[in-house]
Amino acid sequence: MGTVSQLSYPLDLVALKPRAGAPLHRQLCDQLRELILEGAVPAGTRLPSIRACAAELAISRNTVITALDQLSAEGLLESRRGSGTHVSLAAAVAQPRGPSAGDSLAKLSPRGRMMISQPRVRTFPGRTAFHPGTPELAEFPFKTWSRLLSRRARFGGEDLFGYHYVSGHPELREVIASFLTAMRRVRCSPEQIVVTTGGQAALDLLARLLLAEGDTVWMEEPGYLGARGAFLGAGAKLAPLPVDRDGWRVPASADPLPRLIYLTPSCQHPLGITMPLEQRLAVLDVAGAADAWVVEDDFDGEYTFRGQPLPSMQGLTDNPRVIYVGTFAKTLFPAMRLGFIVLPADLADRIRPAISVTGQFAPLVLQAALADFIEQGYFFRHLNRMRRLYGRRRAVFLGLLAEHLEPWLDPIDGRTGIQLAALFKSAIDDNRVVDRAAAAGINLAPLSVYFASEPRASGLLMGYAGVVEAEMRRLIPMMRDILQDLYPAGGDG
């Protein structure tokens, strides 16, 4: 394909409108996606270079990069070494094949349409700053981990490569129970531990086990998107449990009564505050009166930077209907995909058929290696190093926010977690800010997306733990420039 045709095709099919409501990178992404899926740009087509695209469309290179990164993440584009960016051959599968194409979404069940419509915070490979919930990966002892994993893979035998231990490898269940008893004051035995393929899998399993169509769930507002999706996917109706920087506003009674109450008391997601003891006890009183389940998601509970962490809610009560959920995604790395549930003993004893139905049992080799990693002391050494590192980075991050973004942002300085929420001080569209930041290579999450109902607070959720201080010092002034351009001097814009 020559230079002239590269510049004219498919760019002559793209029409960007600088004054439209949608940002330019989103317009470009949406239009290219539509052309690819309609077959107007066939699989295998080589796109013009980033420089050529930017020049032809009169937009910045960062805008082009952001749009192409998103389409690559969706599997519609692929980069070939020395050959540029092409429409993925796999995209041909998604292209229309006949008159019935495009009807698939309409033929989904109402619950299916609801599930695929759930919001999701965008991720961009290679952009850690400032994606929420991302730990520091460069400091993880991968050599040690590789050695332990390799040893288990070589000598695992039939136990690690068969259909065994659906509830979790015995050694891992034992070390998790010991850790939770000592560090989080959870009341449990190894037999109550169920290992899952991550925290989200745990929430999905619990939602399907505990909820019937139309059951009411008290859901924190704002709250964790993964939990919201799991409960809606199980057919539940959500009732907001309001949370602000002052804590949880727990009603003394409710009509209808909740079947389940979902909480992130150790580090509220997304605000990062810790639930006071009196509010924990108030929730347990309501749950007892309603005979409701309580799901305690111990989000980032390992990272407390002022004072001592409060014990788990599960450890405060004899009520067997308080279920504890945890994950290794933040203490180790997200792709570990290992989480766990602490269930009542009678339910844990009978859970295996349900886990088999879902297929959500984690690889045993991975579980055995993790048990070795914890038992041999590597887990706690890594955790203590990260606490010190994240404490330093948190202080620097807060200082830079105060120095550069004070006219616009009011950070919520909770004492826990590897991310920070900050509220806008005036009427600012947080989605607009996030889109502009994405075009500049900065990965943020809008706080408004964590609200399921109106009014929605406007702000940003920013992960700092995986970002070196030099990168913070480079990017936060860029955020200031973006905000100054969109909303001068913190005004309404």
Q: Would you write up a description of this structure?
A:
The chain has 493 residues and is of the alpha/beta class. 41% of the residues lie in helices and 13% in strands. It is built from 18 helices and 14 strands. It has an 8-stranded mixed sheet with strand order 3-10-9-8-7-4-5-6, with helices on both faces. A 4-stranded antiparallel sheet has the order 11-12-14-13, covered by helices on one side. Helix 3 crosses helix 4. It is globular, with a radius of gyration of 24 Å.
List the helices and strands and how they pair.
Elements: H1 3-8, H2 24-38, H3 50-57, H4 61-73, E1 77-80, E2 84-87, H5 91-94, H6 110-116, H7 142-155, H8 157-161, H9 170-183, E3 193-196, H10 199-210, E4 216-221, H11 225-233, E5 237-244, E6 247-248, E7 260-263, H12 277-290, E8 293-297, E9 322-327, E10 339-342, H13 345-348, H14 352-358, H15 364-375, H16 378-405, E11 409-412, E12 419-424, H17 430-439, E13 445-446, E14 459-463, H18 469-486
Parallel strand pairs: 4-5, 4-7, 7-8, 8-9
Antiparallel strand pairs: 1-2, 3-10, 5-6, 9-10, 11-12, 12-14, 13-14
Helix pairs in contact: 2-4, 3-4, 6-11, 7-15, 9-15, 10-11, 16-18
